[in-house]
Amino acid sequence: MKPLNEYKKIVILTGAGISAESGISTFRDSQGLWEQHKIEDVATPEAFEKDPLLVWKFYSMRRLQAAKAKPNLAHLALIQFAKAHPDVHLITQNVDALHLRADTTHSLPPICMHGSLHESSCSNCGIVYLDDYAYFNELGDYAPQETELCDSTQRSHQHYLHHYNLEYRNFIPLSPCCKVMIRPHIVWFGEMPQHMEKIYHQISHCDLFVSIGTSGVVYPAASFLAGAKAAGAHTVCLNKEPIPQAAFIDEFIEGSATDIVPRFFRI
Ligand code: OAD
């Protein structure tokens, strides 16, 4: 592989593995989220229709967990690298907002293809609001609290939902726009990931593609390595274990994200 500064356009894809050492559960490792919760109970549009309270309890718990976590050396290494390289793009499947919180200088704005835990949207018109409230505590009791997933600038934004301004129905906040339930702004199973046009454009024009901490089983993200390879990019995978896309990976580096990511992106 050439030295990193000889690549013109670099696209990075991240998954839950990059945040694991910050204390955020991955999905498919043992003790992962999908071992403890059924996808069809908490992460589909049908689940929200059937039991919005259960869905909001689950996402309140995830907001609390994400807010307690801090960006780790891997998140920070990507920001340092982006400061020194003119054309780096970050696509993340993660909803934990750790890339954003690592990026105090706004050097590497992530494309959040699966949404974000610090946003909610109107379940009628889709307007997106900044919202970092955990509406329920870890015991599942109604106890709205700010989680600090949003910073003070986001809190003063006109689209930030202050819970004391909201109307509620059955403990679920109603959107200021249509007065219907708000939902977590998360892409659920059966829904279309966000920003796909932009993502495909970046992938088809990059000359280095780096996949970090993702199991490569959820599409369309699982197809990005193949897409980058087809576009002629050099492809690298940094992960704790091999992933199914071996045929499209030029270089596989095995290890923990906080160790291998800073070493790979050293500047
Ligand atoms: P997974 O839980 O499927 O995979 C995490 C990957 O990270 C696995 O391959 C682990 O081996 C690896 N890993 C774990 N700890 C690591 C560490 N410390 N350092 C490096 N690698 C580590 O998570 P994702 O691939 O992100 O979607 O899952 C993709 C999507 O499936 C998620 O965005 C989510 C989920 O359902 C939605 O909720 C829409």
Structure description:
- 28% of the residues lie in helices and 21% in strands.
- The chain is an alpha/beta fold and 267 residues long.
- The chain has two domains: 1-24 and 71-114 and 193-267, TPP-binding domain (Rossmann fold); 29-68 and 116-186, SIR2/SIRT2 'Small Domain'.
- The strands form four sheets. Strands 3-2-1-11-12-13 form a six-stranded parallel β-sheet, sandwiched between helices. Strands 5-4-10 form a three-stranded antiparallel β-sheet.
- The longest helix has 17 residues, at 52-68.
- Residues 15-17, 20-21, 26-29, 32, 43, 93, 114, 187, 213-215, 218, 239-241, 243, 256-257 line the site of 2'-O-acetyl adenosine-5-diphosphoribose.
Strand content: 15-25%
* Main β sheet profile: 6 strands, parallel
Order of helices and strands: EHHHHHEHEEEEEHEEEHEHEEH
CATH fold description of the largest domain:
Rossmann fold
Unreliable residue runs:
none
The first-level CATH class name of the largest domain = Alpha Beta
Shape: globular
* N-C termini distance: 16 Å
* Cα-based radius of gyration, to the nearest Å: 19 Å
The number of domains is 2
Helix content: 25-40%
CATH superfamily descriptor of the largest domain: TPP-binding domain
Name the ligand types: 2'-O-acetyl adenosine-5-diphosphoribose
Using DSSP, what is the number of strands? 13
Number of helices: 10
What is the topology, as strand order, of the major beta sheet? 3-2-1-11-12-13
Based on secondary structure, the structural category is alpha/beta
Overall mean confidence score, pLDDT? 95
Which architecture of the largest domain would the CATH scheme give at its second level?
3-Layer(aba) Sandwich
